[in-house]
Each structure stands twice: as structure tokens, then as C-alpha cells.
Automatic annotation (TrEMBL):
Family per similarity comment: Belongs to the UPF0758 family.
Biological-process GO terms, alphabetical: proteolysis
Cross-referenced InterPro entries: MPN, RadC_JAB, RuvA_2-like, UPF0758, UPF0758_CS, UPF0758_N
One Pfam entry name: UPF0758_N
Keywords: Hydrolase, Metal-binding, Metalloprotease, Protease, Zinc
Listed name of the protein: DNA repair protein RadC
Amino acid sequence: MVDGTPRVSEWPPYERPREKLVSMGAKSLNDSELLAILLRTGNRNESAVALGQRLLATFGGIPGLSRTVVAELSRVKGVGLAKGAQILAALELGRRMSERSLVPEESIRSGESVYRLLGPRLREERKESFWVLLLDTRHRLRRMEKISEGTLAMTPVHPREAFSPAVRESASAVIFVHNHPSGDPEPSPEDWSLTTRLVECGTLLGIRVLDHIVIGDHAYVSLRERGAPMGG
């Protein structure tokens, strides 16, 4: 009993998150119940489920939690460093699973396929970051790499750094991707200007620039689809 509130271990078995997961599967649990399994215990005033609910409310749900750092979580009563690390590790595993759901053998030709690959990661980032997807002659993904990370409003990108991984690994084509932490994926004038420079540089290097994707909050913009001239 926690100050008059039953502990999860005192609940009926069919209501306990762990037993519920075992008998009915992970999909049967809501977000706070899944967090309760990671937390294992609550604090003097809350059960693990109640603590999970408070974390979700405090940080803005799962998307908000994924943007936190361990230091922020550890300041919450009942969490601490160890539990905070466990939560962020679980969220990162889920994000990586989502990224890898697009198999390398699949050709990447649309903004939608790029968004499925990097959207879950970049739409939660607090800072603007710039990525390159390295593709082979059939536009299959070979690897993706972060080129730079900037501030809330911008990230410095030079064509030399942007194409360095593609040159190093002899990529046939590339797609550039960056996020807008504001949540609005509408390309800025600087985004259009940078895209023109990157396409020109790619032409000189013999590396086709297929697209430049801007990712926002559950949305994206393809500059190719908006009419920007590309290299392939």
C-alpha cells in the first residue's frame, strides 16, 4: 500500500501490466502500463502506472519523452538515473526498429519512403540536423549518415561535408534530409538555395542528388516534388 494507494503488486493479476502483457500481448497495454513495466516501482505516493501517467503528462506523451535526456527524467520523483536510462533505451530501440523496417534492398525514390525511414527520429529532435542517404545505382539504400547538427533554427552545411560520405563510399546517388524542430516542414529560402548548391556540386562530382526532404511534425516536404531541379 502506497499512502492508501495499492501497489501494482497488490492489484488483481489480470490488471497488472506485466501479467497482462504475458497473457494478452504487449499491444493490449496502454502507454502508461508499458512505462510501468520499465519503471517496475513507483514512489511513496504513486504506483508505477500512476508514475508512468505523470511522466506522459509532464513531457507530452511518448514523443515528448523521446526528446528528453536522462538528467531531466532523473529529476522526477521515483525515476532516477537508472530508470531514466531504461526508458530512453527502450524508446531508442523502438525508434531504431522503425528505421530498419525499410530494408536496404528497397529502392528509395519517394519522399514518403524517406519519411518512413527517418521521420520517427528527426521529427522528435530538438535541434536541426542534416543527413545524407547513400544509394547505389538502383537507388537502394546502402547507408545513412548524419552530416551536421545545429541549433533550434538552423544547421551549418557545406557541400564538401555533405558529399564526403558519398565520395568516400562511391555512392551513385544521394538524398539529403533535414528537420525543422519548429514542426513546420515548409522549406525556407535558405533550404532552396542550399538545394541548388548541392545539386550543382553533385553534378560536378558525378553523384546524382535525387531529392532534399524537410521533415516536420508528422509531415514532410520534398523539394523535388515542389519543383526543385534535381540531378536524377
